[in-house]
Amino acid sequence: MEFDSEEAAYIFYNEYARKMRFSVRKEQVVKNKKTGEVTSRIYSCSKEGYRLKDKRDKLTKNPRAETRTGCEAQMGIKLNRCINKFVVYDFREAHNHALVSKKCAYMLRSQRGVSNEVSPHPRKQQLENPSFFHAIQLDSEEQITNVFWADAKMILDYGQFGDVVSFDTTYRTNKDNCPLGVFVGFNHHREVIIFGAALMYDEMADSFIWLFETFLDAMFGKSPKTIFTDQDAAMAKAISVVMPDTYHRLCIWHIMQNAMKKVNHVFRSRTRVHKVLSKFIDSYEEEYEFLAVWDAMLTEYNVYGDEWFKRIFEVRRKWAYAYVRGQWCARLQTTQISESINGDLKDYLQSDHNLVEFFKHFERVVNDKRYKELEAEYALCQKIPQVQRPIKMLIEAGNVYTKIIFEEFQNEFVSALDFYIKTTVDTREDIVYTVGDLDTSKEFRVIRKKSDNYVSCCCKLFEMNGVLCGHAIKILREVMNVKVIPSEYILNRWTRKARSNSVKDMHGRDIQVDTKLQQTTWYRSLCSIFTKISSWGAESKETYEVAFEHANKLRTTIEEMLSSKRDGTSHEKDDQGSAPITKDTCVQAKGFKKRGGSRGRKRQTSQLERAYMRKLAQMRQLLGKKGCSDVDVQENGSKTGRQASGGRKNSETTSRPAQSSKEVIANISTDNVADVQANGSKRRRQASRGRKSTKTTSQTSPSSKDVGKVDNLIQQASQQQPTGHLESEHVQALNKTVGV
After folding, report:
1. Are 92 and 224 contained in the same domain?
2. Is there a single domain that holds both residue 138 and residue 20?
3. Which residues have CB under 8 Å from 291's CB, separation 6+?
4. Do 57 and 137 share a domain, yes or no?
5. In a domain, 343, yes or no
6. 508: pLDDT confidence band, cut at 50, 70 and 90?
7. For the stretch 168-201, what's the b/e string if a residue is b when 16 or more beta carbons lie within 10 angstroms of its beta carbon?
8. Residue 360, pLDDT above cutoff 70
9. In whole angstroms, what is the distance from residue 498 CA to residue 600 CA?
10. In what order do the strands lie in the sheet with 85-92?
11. 521 and 484, same structural domain?
12. Domain check: are 140 and 206 in the same one?
């Protein structure tokens, strides 16, 4: 093979590398000492050789990942002066490493900016994909209430990683405050993936039942092993009806958020709330331990009668570690998922988006999540796992698991080095080992079944997360002399080949994420055939006429086939491409049903506002007991006037009677409350910052000075002598003025 220049040879070899999916590095070059002309050059795989050891490695906390494997694939060229061209004198094809997947090929260093077949983000959703699923629910007026959709990639993801699902409706999508329900989970890189989404009219049990049933229809009837949700009674009811065999757990993120709102005043700091509750969520392993510490906490903070603590205790089996220990959760951190999804939705979606804009921006969220998986896949192919100790079990784990799962396994393996076997008890069916921890002085029971040598630990780490714990590793290596990880302890969902299994949709068809890929292959094959026919047909008049005649017949046949297929497309999609509308007869929807009532949820009041309202309630109660007759206060007139008027200057210096109950009410109505309302209105105007105003009846936002004013009035009224009952019209005037 000959090339006109060194650059032409590089372009050729780099194009070959693009198709084979590896990166090229320019290696040795030989130049003429006199003229500087290149006489020979070697192009090699980017994984050629090994990185030289750096003397500073011991000082580096996080060294760069190793990427070279000593690959010998290369192409060598040299200058042939007789023909003045470069010729290939050495070509080695074999690689000693796995090549990257086609979807990650454009990320290779030498291929960046070269490939035009794959974009940085996944392709836009092709609605023509027969595996695309969508369903709508109509009300009696044929208006759309709920919509669910899942593209082919979402269904494929669920088939491979749908054992654990988190469902969240926290985010509100538009000005009508419609909830957006999102089904999410984790892939084998622990990256967030989306299984489906829904726009909902309300959050009633019937709507959730329809949504969960539709979700299972899209996912070929497969229920997740575990589902995480917030503490919503309607949602819990729907899960028990539609997915009775699924373990329902509460999202830790939502529990913490609710605790901040409901019981923050009990602990008096957010950090204290998190510190106390996190122990019940993560630390206490036994039920008796949990109950004892919970009771001690209620006693310490005197919250036995608190409604929030009562409700959260009733559902303790859905969130407390003592109860959920041993239930499969794939180490899904709901805090990470909820914060990630809600943060991305807030970045991309706005309340003034119309339906088309909403779907466009929601697709961007989905594409960003999928692109992170591509980056993780590329890093997995390019970087070699950093093994802390050259032990066979660790090396094998690095080749089997993805990066983050291997790191978890390696941490457990290293921790096992500090464990010791304390006792061994041989029973009829099992052998029970007691494994001690030198650091924490804790002891763990590891049971080995005699029938099949299966090992399980009381910590339940493998049952919960799918990664062997250090206690079990200790028994496998030192007692059973196992040098590699037994296959029964390797879950496919955590391996590098987790996506190798095919998934069928609800109609039994293999899901193809990119339906255009097969069409591209067919197109290239036909182009090759018809190019040869055109070349041969042009050789003579006879061959031209034969080729032209058969080409016309073939074109007519294909046009008829495509025309008949187009006519049946709509019927085929109704039968196969989506879920049926929830009515007996297919009807034309009249648009989305509008939500009535206020725009959003009621604004949360601050602690200062709640304190202010309590003071006002105390004032009304006190005045109701005192009555409405005039009473004397043993103060001089000027001081009494200043206190009764809320600090206003009084020009009179002579002594005068104290104010009556009517005057006290008038002072509250015309002075203190007016100031509070003025201050609150000013703060609301500043907070709105030009947003469109809406008519509202929300409470004002008092300041600490306002609370102090009411305190002064309470002290004044408490010194009065009761002579009767406060007139009802005065109480009504007070209620109307303060807005309670």
Report:
1. no
2. no
3. none
4. no
5. yes
6. low
7. bbbbbbbebebbbbbbbbbbbbbbbbbbbbbbbb
8. yes
9. 42
10. 2-3, 85-92, 74-80, 38-45, 24-31
11. no
12. yes
CA distance 27 to 36: 17
Together in a domain, 410 and 479: yes
pTM: 0.64
Q: Is residue 352 part of a domain?
A: yes
Give the number of domains in the chain: 5
Domain boundary (374, 408, 432) is at 374
State which residues form the domain around 100.
2-111
Q: Is 448 exposed, middle or buried (0-12, 13-18, 19+ CB in 10 A)?
A: buried
pLDDT tens per residue, range 254-265: 888 888 888 888
Within a domain: 523? yes
Asked whether 408 and 467 are in contact (CB, 8 A), the reply is yes
Measured between alpha carbons, how far is 258 from 622 in angstroms, rounded to an integer?
Answer: 34
Q: State the pLDDT at residue 318.
A: 92
pLDDT score recorded for residue 490: 95
Q: Long-range CB contacts (< 8 A, 24+ apart) of 299-308? A: 301/266, 301/267, 303/263, 303/266, 306/263, 306/266, 308/258, 308/259, 308/262, 308/263
Tokens 């309607």, residue?
Answer: 234
Q: Of 494, 526, 553, which marks where a domain is finished?
A: 494
DSSP string, 464-506: HHSS--HHHHHHHHHTS---S--GGG--GGGBTTTT-S--B-T
Q: Give the DSSP letter string of 394-414.
A: HHHHHHHB-HHHHHHHHHHHH
> 620 and 728 in contact (C-beta within 8 Å)?
no
Which of the two residues, 683 and 54, has the higher pLDDT score?
54
pLDDT recorded at residue 624: 61
The CA distances from residue 260 to 163, 252, 308, 321, in Å, are: 31, 12, 11, 20
Question: What is the token pair recorded at 41?
Answer: 């050059």
Q: How many residues does the chain have?
A: 740
**What is the pLDDT at residue 228?**
92
Cα–Cα distance measured from residue 644 to residue 638, given in angstroms and rounded to the nearest whole number: 10
**SS3 of 6, please?**
helix
Q: What stretch of H or E contains 164?
A: strand 164-168
Question: Structure tokens of 630?
Answer: 């005039």
Distance CA 383, CA 391 (A): 19
User: What is the reported pLDDT for 514?
Assistant: 56
237, 331: one domain: yes
- Of 132, 133, 127, 135, nearest to 211 by C-alpha is 135
For position 134, what pLDDT does the model report?
A: 85
Concatenated DSSP letters of 374-394: HHHHHHHHHSB---SS--HHH
The CA angle 226-155-503, to the nearest 5 degrees, is 95
Q: Whole-angstrom Cα distance, residue 70 to residue 48? A: 5
Position 253 scores a pLDDT of 83
Residues 180 and 327 in one domain: yes
